[in-house]
Amino acid sequence: MRTKIQPRAKPLGPEVSPEAKLEQAKNAHAALQHSAQEIRDGRQSMFKAFAELIGKPNEEDRVQLIWAGLVRFANETLDGRALSMETLLALRATIALCVLGNQDLEDVQGEVFTLGFFEDVYRLQTAKKISVDDAFSILAVDLHPRLRLLLAWIADPNRMSHDDRQAALSFLLEHGEQEMAQYEFDPNEEFDETGNVGYPIFYWKRPRSFETVMVPVARFIFERLEQYNDGDIALDDAIPIVLCRREGCGKFSISQRRTKDFCSASCRSLNRQKEKPEEHAEYMRQYRKNNYTKPFPRKKRTEVK
Q1: Does residue 15 fall inside a structural domain?
Q2: Tens digits of residue pLDDT in 94-104
Q3: 112: pLDDT confidence band, cut at 50, 70 and 90?
Q4: Strands 241-243 and 252-254
Q5: What are phi and psi of 88, to 5 degrees?
Q6: Is residue 27 part of a domain?
Q7: Do 224 and 268 sit in the same domain of this protein?
Q8: Is position 14 within any domain?
Q9: Which domain holds residue 270?
Q10: Which of 48, 29, 124 is nearest to 56 (CA)?
Q11: What is the DSSP annotation of 134-184?
Q12: FRET pair for 14, CA 20 to 30 Å: which of 31, 158, 209, 268?
């Protein structure tokens, strides 16, 4: 227990004037601003690169880009063959974008894109002695039908059977549970409750790995569903994808209007032609009447004798 006021410690170096301290603070603030701007520029550059890979170079909305990437991947037809490099890169960009909105994960986008963050990729690569890219390609082909089922369920739940709904939800839970992400924890060596000379936290939390490549995607979809369930966003905003209703199509698309039945005007027309031929015939007659006119008849040329 202290019984008297302790003498103030003598400075180790020469006293710094208030003006010098102010100048140091200004320089430190400017350096921090410069560093922050470099980080922002780097993230913006990475975002644009991901948009290019997904095939939407002008899209600036992260959520729309993620849905576009998932739709592109789900619409691929496998037919027993490997996925194209363009599709695989688009999927990797989509997965990396899923971590962008998470403060704990923003700084590991690069590692996520290069696949150095996923345990399933590492295990397959090690077991088969293949490259990281080949391991991801195998996993993507295996995940393709299950991801399609998940997207079909959230796009049009009432069209799914009970078993398909259950399988889709099980897939989402399998990859979206909290324990699927591993973190590292280190005690803070510069604790300061005021935050003036240190950090007012007891430990650092750093992401270490994900169990599967679908963890970021599942987390993203979970977040959208929860926001809709809580009434924070409308269904069109939560799940802006369409599963085409035309038999034999089955493609997904990003909804552009309130109608959620077909992926394109062509599929809408083909479906009407099959289900309601009389209505389609009348529609086509009216369409031709409104959009096409017969040319004026040419007069016969009279021969000069």
Answers
A1: no
A2: 999 998 766 66
A3: confident
A4: antiparallel
A5: -65, -40
A6: no
A7: no
A8: no
A9: 245-286
A10: 48
A11: HHHHHHHHHHHHHHHHHHHHHH-GGGS-HHHHHHHHHHHHHHHSGGGEEEE
A12: 31
HSE toward the beta carbon, residue 115, CA cutoff 13 A: 20
* Predicted local confidence at residue 150, as pLDDT: 97
Token pair of 135, please?
């391991």
**Radius of gyration, alpha carbons of the chain:** 29
DSSP, collapsed to helix, strand or coil, labels residue 186 as strand
Token pair of 23 as six digits = 């100048």
194 and 277 together in one domain: no
Q: How far apart are CA 233 and CA 239, in angstroms?
A: 10
Confidence of residue 239 (pLDDT cuts 50, 70, 90): very high
CA dist., res. 282 & res. 285, Å (int): 5
Measure the CA–CA gap between 121 and 73, rounded to whole angstroms.
Answer: 18
Helix, strand, coil % in the chain, rounded to nearest 5: 55, 10, 35
Does residue 169 sit in the same domain as residue 255?
Answer: no
My answer on whether 214 and 121 are in the same domain is yes
Say if residue 2's pLDDT is above 50: no
How confident is residue 166, by pLDDT bands cut at 50, 70 and 90?
very high
* The pLDDT value given to residue 170: 95
